[in-house]
């Protein structure tokens, strides 16, 4: 007992003296450290916001500027091809509201203007062209942005960019970009409980942001951080500016950081009232003092009770918890103490067993859910096949053949599952094709063929809202694209066609050759592969055709009228 008291007293002395010294030093230096931390946090926040804003602006800009580097030169392409390129930019980037092509004489080229009809009114298109002409008249040597204006439809701020094409200049291009997404991002950016971030142009006019700063174009140059930035930029306009610190005095004092987007010259600013930014300083000082008293008490309690009875059980718990964290559900703690630690061990063991049971149940539910997905997909495919007796079972066979090709090409399990779904659903868009065309026994007219060729886009629109079928959309939309770029609906070429879509296209063609149709009888495998070899490099990916040939030679596939896989003759 005397030894216990001596050790206890020694432990208290050894713990109290360092604790008091650390507490005193902590209180002395906490204010400076926390102030620095608050400013560093503001600095890091602005850096991140700048990266997001730059990325938001760069992505659609790169897409538009990419028109100037199309193979062969944009201005040498046929007018229809030029229109297709312009339409592709608007379809692929929702941020691009309008796009106009000007000749070397700075006159708009007839028929080479496109805009988002649902997002822009004719008056807005005219304003877009007016801003573009102003940029062209100012002289362009590269990409240049106009002042930001408010969208007439309330869709958010809009900026116009323009740039020359060719050297020497063959013409110009201009595009309107909506900053609605950037506005949404900054509106959601909270700085503590009362701070906010905003974006302003080089003149100190508001572009977008949180807080009650007003509408687009509002003059915010008098705000102390922005006023400081404008002053610094006037002194050294070519310097990359970044600053963080305290601005203003009294109730208007803020902790702020700002940075400049070099391409557009816009300023990204983060502000937070000083009293809120540094509130944690006082809170931390009180916590340190309270912790100092608590540390002395904890030292006494821990020295007397937990030193001998806690260390070893905790090590056991830690080791077992790590096993549980690594996924070894059902592991148990072997602790026989009849105290709280013993009860904790029993609770831990019960939790571990429950996790094991939940894991097994979850696996079963996942497998059942996946099975239900597949049954639903098969039912959707059957709804198409049932319209035409000649295509019954076609979708299922296409899915099966596509999976076999994927296995030969060493695709992952996830990709194989996507191939199965994509093969089954590739013709789902035929739901939207009138049955008189779908089941017509004679050759389709040009108008009927054009209608039939709409089924990939219809299928894409049907499965688009279904989240788990997102990776399958490429198979549905692009299974009629051709390797030489003459397919439909998007005229993709070569490896720009998604791999899964190329595999489904090959499986679809193969099943069409080996099935009986109104216009042909089922072909033998050798004849079918001869046709696919002829289509290799023109309609079909040569690598996929080779993979199909390997499958047929090694293990075969199921074709119409056969229950077992059929192989090529060796």
TrEMBL record:
Residues 369-564 form the HD-GYP domain. It comes from the Bacteria. GO terms for biological process: signal transduction. SMART domains: HAMP, HDc. Pfam families: dCache_1, HAMP, HD_5. PROSITE patterns: HAMP (PS50885), HD_GYP (PS51832). Its main location: membrane. Residues 308-360 form the HAMP domain. InterPro entries: dCache_1, HAMP_dom, HD/PDEase_dom, HD_GYP_dom. It is a multi-pass membrane protein. The keyword Transmembrane applies. Keywords: Cell membrane, Membrane, Transmembrane, Transmembrane helix. One of its GO terms (cellular component) is plasma membrane. The keyword GTP-binding does not apply. The chain crosses the membrane at residues 6-27, 288-306. It is found in: Cell membrane. This is HD domain-containing protein. It comes from Corallococcus terminator.
């Amino acid at each position: 007992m005397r030894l216990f008291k001596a050790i206890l007293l020694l432990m208290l002395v050894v713990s109290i003296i360092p604790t008091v010294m650390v507490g005193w030093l902590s209180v002395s230096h906490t204010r400076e450290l926390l102030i620095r931390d608050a400013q560093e946090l503001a600095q890091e926040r602005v850096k991140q916001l700048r990266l997001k804003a730059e990325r938001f602006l760069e992505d659609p800009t790169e897409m538009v500027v990419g028109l100037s580097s199309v193979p062969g030169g944009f201005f040498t392409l046929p007018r229809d091809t030029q229109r297709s390129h312009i339409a592709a930019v608007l379809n692929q980037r929702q941020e691009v509201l309008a796009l106009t092509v000007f000749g070397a004489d700075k006159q708009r080229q007839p028929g080479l203007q496109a805009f988002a009809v649902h997002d822009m009114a004719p008056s807005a298109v005219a304003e877009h062209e007016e801003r573009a002409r102003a940029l062209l008249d100012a002289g362009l040597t590269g990409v240049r942005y106009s002042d930001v204006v408010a969208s007439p439809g309330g869709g958010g701020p809009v900026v116009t960019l323009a740039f020359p094409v060719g050297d020497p200049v063959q013409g110009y291009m201009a595009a309107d970009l909506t900053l609605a997404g950037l506005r949404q991002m900054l509106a959601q950016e909270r700085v503590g409980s009362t701070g906010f971030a905003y974006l302003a142009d080089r003149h100190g006019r508001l572009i977008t942001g949180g807080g009650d700063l007003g509408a687009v174009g509002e003059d915010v140059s008098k705000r102390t951080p922005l006023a400081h930035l404008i002053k610094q930029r006037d002194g050294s306009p070519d310097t990359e500016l970044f600053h963080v610190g305290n601005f203003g005095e009294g109730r208007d004092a803020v902790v702020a950081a700002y940075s400049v987007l070099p391409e557009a010259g816009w300023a990204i600013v983060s502000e937070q009232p000083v009293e809120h930014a540094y509130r944690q300083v006082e809170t931390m000082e009180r916590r340190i003092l309270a912790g100092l008293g608590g540390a002395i008490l904890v030292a006494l309690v821990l020295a007397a009770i937990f030193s001998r009875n806690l260390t070893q059980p905790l090590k056991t718990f830690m080791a077992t918890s790590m096993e549980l964290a690594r996924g070894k559900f059902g592991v148990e703690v072997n602790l026989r103490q009849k105290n709280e630690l013993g009860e904790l061990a029993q609770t831990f063991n019960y939790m571990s067993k429950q996790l094991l049971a939940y894991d097994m149940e979850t696996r079963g539910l996942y497998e059942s859910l996946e099975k239900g997905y597949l049954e639903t997909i098969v039912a959707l495919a059957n709804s198409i096949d049932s319209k035409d007796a000649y295509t019954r079972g076609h979708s299922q066979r296409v899915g099966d053949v596509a999976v076999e090709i994927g296995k030969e090409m060493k695709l992952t399990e996830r990709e194989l599952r996507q191939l199965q779904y994509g093969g089954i659903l590739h013709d789902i868009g035929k739901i939207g094709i009138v049955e008189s065309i779908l089941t017509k026994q004679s050759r389709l007219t040009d108008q009927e063929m054009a209608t039939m060729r709409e089924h990939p886009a219809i299928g894409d629109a049907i499965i688009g809202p279904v989240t788990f079928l997102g990776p399958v959309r490429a198979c549905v939309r692009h299974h009629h694209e051709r390797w030489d770029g003459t397919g439909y609906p998007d005229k993709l070429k070569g490896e720009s066609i998604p791999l899964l879509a190329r595999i489904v296209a090959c499986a679809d063609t193969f099943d069409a050759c080996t099935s009986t149709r109104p216009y042909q009888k089922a072909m033998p495998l050798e004849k079918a592969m001869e046709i696919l070899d002829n289509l290799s490099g023109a309609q079909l990916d040569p690598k996929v055709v080779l993979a199909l040939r390997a499958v047929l030679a090694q293990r075969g596939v199921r074709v119409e009228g056969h229950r077992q896989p059929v192989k090529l003759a060796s």
